[in-house]
Amino acid sequence: MTDEHTRVAVLSDIHGVLPALEAVLAEPDVAAADRIVLTGDIAAGPQPAEVLDLLREQGDRVLWIGGNADRELVEYRRGERTEIPDPIGPYAARALRTDQVDFLAALPATRTLRVRGLGPVLFCHATPRDDEEVVLVDSRPARWAEVFTGLPADIRTVVCGHTHMPYLRLAHGRLVVNPGSVGMPYGRPGAHWCLLGPGADLRVTSYDIPAAVTRLIRECAYPDIAAWADYFLHARATDTEVLAAWSPADS
After folding, report:
1. Which of 1, 38, 75, 167 has the fewest CB atoms within 10 Å of its CB?
2. Inter-axis angle of helices 209-219 and 225-233, to 10 degrees?
3. How far is Cα of residue 199 from the mean position of the Cα atoms in its chain?
4. Is 30 within 8 Å of 24 (Cβ atoms)?
5. What span, in angstroms and rounded, lies between the C-alpha atoms of 107 and 156?
């Protein structure tokens, strides 16, 4: 972790939505970033193989972290589970090539990079200790103390995803950054991401959502793709609804 990066683009929760990913990768600040960090839940969606191929084409500039949905795809394909909570999950798992399953299986749970202005930054999917633990923008201080247990003292910034809603907050002197979701945003449409260095800048990329819905219907064989694409790309789940749904898990 000796190298210090000036600009790092963070993409989380792409969920196999290729048009949203393409829109973010076309952003000048993403193209110019020193690194692109993926904080998990990359493939579980309508175009998993295509999303993985496009990201791997970006080369070593991309740093990968696995999420709970990626893990579930691997477990399903390897016969370690017979169902996935997300209805589109089994379709996505079957759509992956064997080499892609193996690639997802090898992804780390966390990474640490030094970013100019922020120092050592820890990247994870849900929390530093668990890939499906829920923390929210309004989680109580004691909850954050639990989540940070065991983190090195020099980690002053933690970047996570999982809840699909962007926020910045301080918790016990640490900056917590959630870039939101590229492919399945809650509360507001668009492809959400974040640019780090020297601060933390939440971004949202607008793209042609009706055209993307049409494209997914044309290119994806998932039986309920029309309803899926309409609901998630238009962000029809409000932030209020999602926070109410997540809150029982934030205990």
Report:
1. 1
2. 160
3. 20
4. yes
5. 24
Q: How far apart are CA 34 and CA 165, in angstroms?
A: 25
Closest CA to 33 of 41, 25, 21: 25
Please compute Rg for the chain using Cα positions: 17
How far is the C-alpha of 180 from the C-alpha of 189, rounded, in Å? 11
Residue 214, burial from CB neighbour count under 10 angstroms (0-12, 13-18, 19+): middle
**Where does residue 33 rank: exposed (0-12), middle (13-18), buried (19+ CB within 10 A)?**
buried
In the predicted structure, residue 246 carries a pLDDT above the cut 90? no
Residue type, 74: V
Task: Give the tokens for residue 232.
Answer: 């998630």
Each residue of 201-210: pLDDT tens digit? 999 999 999 9
- pLDDT tens-digit map of 146-199: 999 999 999 999 999 999 999 999 999 999 999 999 999 999 999 999 999 999
CB count, 10 Å around CB of 84? 18
- pLDDT category at 1 given cuts 50, 70, 90 is low
The residues, any chain, with a CB within 8 Å of residue 163's CB and separated by 6 or more, are 126, 134, 135, 136, 178, 186, 242, 246
Dihedral through CA 24, CA 29, CA 31, CA 33, nearest 10? -120
Q: Which amino acid is at 186?
A: Y
Q: State yes or no: pLDDT of 110 exceeds 80.
A: yes
